[in-house]
Amino acid sequence: MLDEEEKVRSMLNNLHFSFHFGQFYYQDRITVTSKGLDIELVKILTVFNSIDISANKLEGPIPETIGELKSLYVPNLSHNALMGKIPLSLGNLSQLESLDLSSNKITGEIPMQLVDLTFLAALNLSFNLLVGPIPQGKQFGAFSNYSYIHNKELCGFPLTTHYTSDEAPPPSATPKYKGTSSTTLIGSSY
């Protein structure tokens, strides 16, 4: 994911694992959650670069070095205990199609650099501790209220409920995550 885009595009092959044990046949397949949809992949293009480390009880800040993964399309870091600010370096990921940082302890403002990500079609920053106005412009006008809910001090369009710092949000339940604590990492390092 660190290499140049041209080098990656020249290797349009499928990742493929299959085994034959007499009459039994096994072919590797995986389910990826991308843009809010579960997709079962049997043939995985080597240019499909996704990192799913959701629901792994990870703690600490998201490293700035994530912005060096130039071919990263779909990172899912949701349902952990990540804290600190959203790295400005995410704005360097020009191929980013989906970003899920929901259900963490991320603080600070949403970086304006994310507005310039022209391929970003799905964003979920809900259930964090974000503050300030939601950046406006480009695709950010297309994201729904659900992309930002349960960030007590976040404000602006498209949020329909606005909280002041001395007003408590309405009671809510923590979202139930039906998943496992296993990690699935797919992609290519070409």
Topology:
Layout: H1 5-9, E1 14-15, E2 18-21, E3 24-27, E4 30-34, E5 37-41, E6 44-45, E7 50-52, E8 59-60, E9 74-76, E10 81-85, E11 98-100, E12 105-108, E13 122-124, E14 129-133, E15 153-155, E16 184-186
Parallel strand pairs: 7-9, 8-10, 10-12, 11-13, 12-14, 14-15
Antiparallel strand pairs: 1-6, 2-3, 4-5, 7-16
Give an account of the 3D structure.
The chain has 190 residues and is mainly beta. The chain has one helix at 5-9, and strands at 14-15, 18-21, 24-27, 30-34, 37-41, 44-45, 50-52, 59-60, 74-76, 81-85, 98-100, 105-108, 122-124, 129-133, 153-155, 184-186. The chain has a single domain (5-186), classed as Leucine-rich repeat, LRR (right-handed beta-alpha superhelix) (Alpha-Beta Horseshoe), CATH 3.80.10. The chain has a five-stranded parallel beta sheet, with no helix packed on it. A three-stranded mixed beta sheet has the order 9-7-16, with no helix packed on it. It is globular and about 60 Å long. The relative contact order is 0.18.
